[in-house]
Amino acid sequence: MERNTKFVDLLENRRRDCDFLWATRPMDPALPHMLPPDSIYDRERIMQAVLQDNQVKIAINTIAKTTGVGVKDVENNARAMINEMASKADLATVRWIAIFVTKALKRMFSQIYINEIILSNLKKETRISQAQYIYVPSHRSYLDFILLSYILFSYDMALPNIAAGMDFYNMKIVGELLRKTGAFYIRRSFSNDLLYKQIFRSYVNTIVSHSDRAIEFFIEGTRSRSQKSTIPKYGLLSIIIESLLQGDVPDIHFVPMSINYERPPEELLFVYEMLGVPKPKESTTRLFRSLSILQKPFSHGRIFFNIGEPISASRFVDKAYRQKKILQPSFKIPSSVVENIAYLIIESHKKNTILMPINIIALLLNEKVQTKPKEPYTLDLLIQDYQWFKSFVTKSLKALMYGTETTDNDTIKQEILESLKPHDELIVFDSSNMLKIKQRHKRMKQLNYSNIKGYPLSEQTLQIAVPAINIAIYSNPTFAFLAEIVFITATIGENGIETEIALERYELLRRLFSTEFAMRPIEDKALIKIEWEKSLNVLISQNCLHTVNNLIFIGNNTKLFSILHNIILPFIDVTYVTCILLSEWTERTSVELTDRTILVETQKEVERLIFETKDRCQHPYCLSLDLYNTVWSSLLSQDIIAYQKHTNTYRTDKAKLTYLIGALLELPLRHPTEIYVDAFPLIISTSSMDVQAKL
């Protein structure tokens, strides 16, 4: 594993020691923000500072005048807001929680690996730096913030101020316990609430400047159900950077952290959410019910926690910006600066992704179902394919991957079998030593179809889609390294293509799927060409492609080309189907065009195509609502559709839409000859099932 300095298992010592003695050990947690004693604010002083903030006072007076409510009443409302929001860190509470968290983690996971040298260096750096530190982990599970807090506690580092949603606040007992571990609570939407907006801005600025603890937030906003990186959200990030612009702190260091689960605890819930079944509402009762996952030891395998290099905000917010702020108090940091920092964080998440064996196995199995379902996929064949593809991603793409670099079949065999243990409800070897998929869907009782976010899919569809999307969730992390090269495979036909046309098609796909794959928007064609050439050279080096003069042809390595080509097809297919539906909207239906109606109609049409056609939308992943949402965002960003606020509907730009449909039709796509719904029964395990979807 390159770029790996030293990963250690956090649970190794915990399995030997007494949990109680460890959690109650003498501690002097390292505080990451070095401040003079009189500049460190406790909770009460932070709340007072917020209420005394000039912008908050202006908001209070404005609301009092416009609503006719007394200033005192508005002030009381403001005080209630900040009291609801503010954290209340308490080490004694953290210690008691640590005992129970330790027992749960030791039961659920076989190992939790942490890049210890990087963490130790970070700890040393915080002791001498005057900067404020912002921890920015990737978001793959509800467990993420608990995991980070647990790691910091394990290394005697102070727990941060943690940005948390109101879902947790509303959980009885749990909400207050989390507040005492450092959580501060944010309402989901408050853009139209002037008072709350100013209080939140002031609270964040105050803890950036006057808290001796770091701040933690998820730049992706919500958990990634697909287990891919998602585009960054700029709101909280811009407020944090504002503190630097105002000169409240000398620098701010953003610390990206990539969290990689061998099996996310919400795995099956994610699948159903992607198909439209709403997630269960968080509650204390449901939390206790979820403890059933502790029944089976090591049921969720390993976790890798990889810390990236800190990103200094002062590199982007220079003295010129600060001077401009002094001369012009209303000056705001340019959005390009915020966007640049945001994508540096996301790119660090991707670069530091640790691929697990299951990610490669899922990718290979997905290909097998689509191309050769009638041929048995034995352990010996899987070992060969796994070794080959692992070598490709680690050597050619410089991906980080768990496992030793070896060609020894016995070692690789153990690596594969060990990785499959947490997934015995999804992937198994049958009695003939053939790799099979287990059926994960069971008919859901008392399902309220009025709550379904998309189209109510049939039981037949769910029987195929649930395990198929479950597999895809595990192959998706590979896109951190594969995204650019898979675009290229969708641009090259069997008869070859001119390089200029191939580049134009790449630009089209990159623009269309920058949201889907959380890629930095690039307008400079020269930079896009450099990116394209780099990926093209990788494929040429693998004999996937070859060039003759000004033409690019498919090479002899059709096996690799097929894998890369097939995993991008669902994304292109759904975009095409969405565009066709939009172009025919008035002819197909009299319903107003809204994001909700197009989502339902697209999923309905995709379900039909999966069973009735042999080209577009063969793969059940095309049913994912996450995919529709990113397509919709992409079309909005390119002004192919536009929101009409007065009617709360959308209109299409017919010319742009027609052009895009034509460009997508010109792509030389080669859909698998095997129809997924026909191939699926050949690879599904026929053994008895005992799987319960916890919805």
Beta fraction: 5-15%
CATH-level-4 superfamily name of the domain at 43-352: Glycerol-3-phosphate (1)-acyltransferase
Spans of at least 5 consecutive residues with low confidence: 688-695
Please, how many helices? 29
Organism: Acromyrmex insinuator
Domain Phospholipid/glycerol acyltransferase: 133-262
Main location: membrane
Protein name: GNPAT acyltransferase
Please provide a written account of the structure.
This protein has a domain at 43-352: Glycerol-3-phosphate (1)-acyltransferase. Strand 17 (641-644) and strand 18 (649-652) form a beta hairpin. It is built from 29 helices and 18 strands. It is globular and about 70 Å long. The strands form 5 sheets. Strands 1, 2, 3, 4, 5, 6, 7, 8 and 9 form a 9-stranded mixed beta sheet that branches. The model is unreliable at 688-695 (pLDDT under 50). The longest helix has 26 residues, at 558-583. By secondary structure, the protein is of the alpha/beta class.
